[in-house]
Each structure stands twice: as C-alpha cells, then as structure tokens.
Design a protein that fits this description.
Blueprint (H helix, E strand, L loop, with lengths): L1 H28 L8 H20 L5 H20 L6 H23 L13
Helix pairs in contact: 1-2, 1-4, 2-3, 3-4
C-alpha cells in the first residue's frame, strides 16, 4: 500500500515538474522574454520544478511541499491579471492551463494516502 502511495505521489510530482518546466520556458516560446513580466515565469517555474523534484525524492515526508506548489499553481493562474497580460490571449491561456495543472496535481499529490473518514467498525 505504501509503495502505491509513493508511486502515485511521484507521478503527481512529475506532472507538476513538467508543467513548471513548461511555464519556465514559455516566455521564449511566445517571444515575450524581453518583457519585464517574464521574470515571473522564470522564478515561479523554477520554484515549481525544484519543489516538485524534492517532493519526488521524498514523497511522504515532503508532503508540505505539495501544498506550497498548490499556492504557486494559484499564483500562475492569477498571473495574467497581476502582471497585466490578459490582452495576450495565448499567453493568458498558457498561464491558466499550466497553473490549473499544477494546482490540481498538487491537491491530488498532497491528499493521496490521507483519509478523513474513519473506517467502519465491525460490531460483534
């Protein structure tokens, strides 16, 4: 059971790291690397990747990192409004998609193995 939890957590962290890497390189893909707000992609994308790699290396003990990536995913989603590039549709959609992937995978990866309900008691 623990091996399955670790594997699933590592899979979520791998998805997060890929989304973070994409967010990091996307200013070059969209040709906006000279814009002042491209630093957001580079810093946040690098942070997402580093934290996801740490989470992959320690899937159970580094669970709190998943919650931090959840925050970073929300930040990526909000970035077009924070940095004023909502008029750049392709870049805005990119941020929304990358942020949503990070956010959802962080929720899933951080909640794997956690249960809130107690198992039913057997009455004899």
């Amino acid at each position: 059971m623990m091996r399955n939890i670790e594997s699933a957590t590592k899979a979520c962290a791998a998805i997060i790291s890929l989304a973070g890497a994409w967010f990091f390189v996307s200013p070059w893909v969209y040709g906006v690397q000279a814009m002042a707000n491209a630093w957001n992609n580079w810093i946040v994308g690098a942070l997402i990747v580093v934290l996801a790699v740490i989470h992959m290396a320690n899937p159970i003990s580094a669970r709190a990192i998943g919650y931090f990536n959840l925050f970073l995913g929300a930040w990526v989603v909000a970035s077009p409004w924070i940095f004023g590039y909502i008029h750049m549709t392709d870049r805005m959609v990119n941020s929304l998609c990358a942020g949503a992937v990070v956010f959802v995978a962080a929720i899933v990866g951080s909640s794997i193995g956690h249960t809130t309900a107690m198992p039913p008691r057997l009455h004899t």
